[in-house]
């Protein structure tokens, strides 16, 4: 199946942006990833099983594109992360603190944390998206949680 | 509220401000431009022998596959690349040090969003510097056959290092962010010097080489006259 690209943009634009921002830590680079990702979807001849499959595919493409930007010097860095966070309106101070602490995590923990808590993916699904092992995902999830617990104390629940 | 609910609440502030309209005409135009570039690249590389590796590969408009020996984390191993023409992506496959098959996306694009050719990709991969932080906090740099622990080589969040690999050399600058994580790294053929001025402050400068590829004597003498210490970047 295929979903028309304009429809897909409305459905997942912000999800792609959030995932890309998580890696790039730059609004400008994340916007580039959003555009490049949907363009790539538009251009691919691939047929998908269902909407879930499409979502999985565009997230994987977006994460790879974000990592490519991160490791090259095409990065834009027009605004620092700190300045960008100042432009965001958080519901509570705790939300802001959680956001800032997550963005301080090492990238490999941050991505796993984001895919688990924001995109609701399982360990198995995250391993497939990131093309790594389930045990690696579990370790990164565990360490990411430990760092968040250490930083946020009671604001972050203990989890297995 | 659960961690999941709190996380979603916090990150729901991230909204794309892209107002790009993916109207059909514009998308078709961009698609045509991208396909034309791919066709030109494929036509120009009908049959190429990659210098140094002695490996030949052939391109056809349906897709490109190639197997070469490349450096991965200090070891020269068989790596295969498969180009998906429809998606403009490259899939990299190899067997890691644990005997596990690893598949990674190796896609790269030029600034105009056209994918690099197989030749460009392999050249890039052959010359790649990788800097990673291990789970126990060490910072490891990989370049061809060299695996270097640079954890203790940072000053003020920067590390400058000259690395000579089996098939080339690099002058690499690695930067850490305020949390001590790898922020960025750049490499190039231009060397740099690390010197300390009369006030004891460290400086790093890119310098030019003489015709033999060495720092000119006059440059060295000038630094010695002006500064207390002159240190050439260590390998």
Automatic annotation (TrEMBL), chain A:
Q: Which residues cross the membrane?
A: none
Q: Which domain of life is it from?
A: Bacteria
Q: Which UniProt keywords apply?
A: Sigma factor, Transcription, Transcription regulation
The residue ranges of the RNA polymerase sigma-70 region domain are 8-68
- Any matching Pfam family: Sigma70_r2
One GO BP on record is: DNA-templated transcription initiation
Every copy of the RNA polymerase sigma factor 70 region 4 type domain together lies at: 97-148
What Gene3D superfamilies does its record include? 1.10.1740.10, Winged helix-like DNA-binding domain superfamily/Winged helix DNA-binding domain
| Gene Ontology molecular functions | DNA binding; sigma factor activity
Q: Which CDD domains match?
A: Sigma70_r4
**Which NCBIfam families would you find in this protein's record?**
sigma70-ECF
Recorded family membership: Belongs to the sigma-70 factor family. ECF subfamily.
Recorded protein name is RNA polymerase sigma-70 factor, ECF subfamily
Q: Organism source for this protein?
A: Butyrivibrio hungatei
The organism's taxonomic lineage, starting at the top = Bacteria, Bacillati, Bacillota, Clostridia, Lachnospirales
From TrEMBL, chain B:
Which species does this protein come from?
Butyrivibrio hungatei
Q: Which protein, by its recorded name, is this?
A: Uncharacterized protein
Domain of life of the native organism: Bacteria
